[in-house]
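Chain X:
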Amino acid sequence: MLKILDCTLRDGGYYNNWFFTKDLINEYLKVMSIIKVDYVEIGFRFVDKIKTKGPSAYTDETFLKSLEIPKSLKLGVMINASDFTNKKNILDVAQNTFKPKRNSLISLVRIACHFNEVESIIPLIMWLKKVGYKVGVNIMQIPELSTKEIRSVVKKVKTSKADILYFADSLGSLDPIKTKKIIKDIRLNWKSPIGIHTHDNMGKALDNSITAINNGVTWIDCTVTGMGRGPGNAKTEYLILELKKNLKSENLVQLLNLIKNYFEPLKIKYKWGSNPFYYFAGLNSIHPSFVQEMLGDESFEPGDVQKNLNYLKSV
């Protein structure tokens, strides 16, 4: 069965350091329930806390209890594998970071990891499952892996008995043809649910998501107005229109009001969304964070940005 996961507060936090107002979060949660999103990734759960990051960077249980969470909505968080693998005892860190599921408002934990980190997080995956969580493994930059590497990493994830294997278009380089091939490579050794997280560098996030659905992927990420690192992601409002043809007009209006009142002002301020620089980065497998940082620095003129991108392309 198809699952829609909205990760606006997690991925969008790269623009505002995860400082979202309670009013925005509560209205957002209400609207996500109304339009029948299945899961909301409420934020990260970073291990090391620093004051420059807001509550949606940590999403501790005290913060979650202060929110108005609709009963129909399931919550997830994302963790970075590196936050755990660089510590002395990975399970000690896990126990300090997560309560057992029965004492938590979180249902799903997704682990973002690179190809070479998968083996080291298998004990973490197994522990999270043991204490009651649904676990997704997000393999980052998977379009840049060879077929042999994809098949190898899938076999490793399979030994952990994770619930969902996600592949992330981290560099925004996917197109429908590559999407189909990656799904085929994953399916050789993985019969459980597959998920996809697309980036919109080249304006293909929605097309790649729909292609994935048509090829058996059942977990689809999206964000309101595409808010997310770099150019952003598949837009929730577009994905909902594609997949929920029977969406009531009054429910669509609620979503549009959420965008108008909360997310359009943020987009004007932070300027996420595709542009020629992100397109160039996607074509040449350059991480969008480089573009985001340069565009956020007023000392960079367009010529400086392109000069740096040309250099990154050549190295």
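Chain Y:
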Amino acid sequence: MTSTTTREAPPPVGHYPHARRVGGLLFLSGIGPRPAGGGAIPEGIEAQCHAVFANVRRVLEAAGSGWERLVDVTVFLTDIPADFTTFNRLWAEYFPVDPPCRTTVEVSRLPTPISIELKCVATVEE
């Protein structure tokens, strides 16, 4: 097993790596839209979606994988009635063909004041 943590993505809010590789699979810890270098969290679900997708991409690349290698994504939203339609639209833009599997759930809150977090599994060359 190999763990990856990168300065290109926001630091984890607890004692865990951004990702862990096991064989040909890469498991990402929950990743949100916080900026890598600190600063304000983007406002609004659209800006947070773009930011979280960028952060996931950075972790994937740092761990030797890539956006196109995502196979399963769990999406945590804090307000499905307000945010699901926007998220779904952006998801379709980021994955116009052959998207990964996805599960979306509503949670009452996340560890930081964000509206979205992604938990991902991707493949990686062995």
